[in-house]
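Appendix B. Raw example, untouched.
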Amino acid sequence: MPKILNIVETAYRATIEEQDDTVLWLTHMLKNAGADICVLLRANAVNYAVRGQDASGLSFGENRMTHSPEIDKDVATMIEKGVAVYLVDEDAVERGLSDGELLNGIRKIKRRELPELLDQHEQVWHW
């Protein structure tokens, strides 16, 4: 099975409909099936690595979300299962995120290191 890198750039995609980011869900399922898969969070998706997110009060008019997304917990679970989760350091800095806010196990890399990371994978999926 090829080594796969999932690059997640667009944050909170489909989280209103599904309670989970579909790409993260897919990554979980592929890992459970034995895939050699990693994740790179970049651009707005670096927010997925922030500990303690809470969207429980989210509502649209009279409609309250009864199963709010817990993306930080999804990412933490992936790390626990052995999925390497990388984060572009400059993207986190641009969004004012400090190291103390990030989940344990996140692997920060510099933009200049991206070509090497890409080269370590046989397939790169960009979302």
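End of appendix B.
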